[in-house]
Amino acid sequence: MPELPEVEVVRRGLADHVLARRVAAVEVLHPRAVRRHTGGAGDFAARATGRTLAAASRRGKYLWLEFDDAGPGDDALLAHLGMSGQMLVADPGRPDETHLRVRIRFTDDGPELRFVDQRTFGGLSVHPLVDAAGGGLVPEPVAHIARDPMDPAFSADEAVTALRRRRTELKRALLDQTVVSGIGNIYADEALWRSRLHGLRPTGKLTRAQGHAVLDAATTVMTEALAQGGTSFDALYVNVNGASGYFDRSLAVYGQTDRACPRCGTPIRRDAFMNRSSFTCPRCQPRPRPPRT
Predict the structure, then answer these.
(1) Would residue 286 count as lying in a domain?
(2) 3-class SS of residue 112
(3) What CA–CA distances, in Å, run from 251 to 2, 193, 199, 216?
(4) Domain containing residue 30: CATH number
(5) Could you list the active site residues?
(6) Lesser CB count within 10 Å: N end or C end of the chain?
(7) How do residues 200-245 score in pLDDT, each as one tens digit?
């Protein structure tokens, strides 16, 4: 699933290509693509048609397009990319993609916006903007999401406090989008490796210095990934022009089972984790000792 850098790449592409343009027509080609919109396909199209796209915004992994004169209670178009969702800018004459789900045309007859989703886990929906718990205006379904490390208003001190309050394991806390948003499985593993911490460390035993270290590492690795267009393991994640990112070539541990740790040479270990995988260096990231009984 796309994480913060991949979603930010898409957001920037949308900001470059669709802002200040008025929606002429919306065509929903698969109802599942708008299943999160409670009014259905017809209401979704009606609420977007005739509106001008004024801003492309993001919080963590969540992306939305604000309409003109957006304020509290006004609508925004929320995009959830899921596992394979793509927001593509395409010439109207270009053949339709096999898995095209929603088409948005503009009054200037320029490039259209297409939502393509092979697995149909993602989707588009329109929601009112509300005040988020962490501050700022966000679509209603995103109101509970914490700020992410690349947000100018992000407070590392508050995020560390929230991490240490959790009674869970460190990696689980990093993936909790209500604590700090934007960090997924890939960048959690990379941040833990960089900070020499194991994901099974109890958050209750995390020092403030360690909390800052892992969040700093997450910020650094996501910034580096953003500079390389994000991480693409297949053709499902692409930017608005259809190009893949290439940060996968720079990953230290994620997906590197049995390869040498770039720091100490120890073979990278893979462990099952929440129906996914965790990748660590057994030497650089020793597992925490079990509690005494």
Answers:
(1) no
(2) strand
(3) 15, 10, 17, 17
(4) 3.20.190.10
(5) 2-3, 61, 276
(6) C
(7) 999 999 999 999 999 999 999 999 999 988 887 556 666 888 887 8
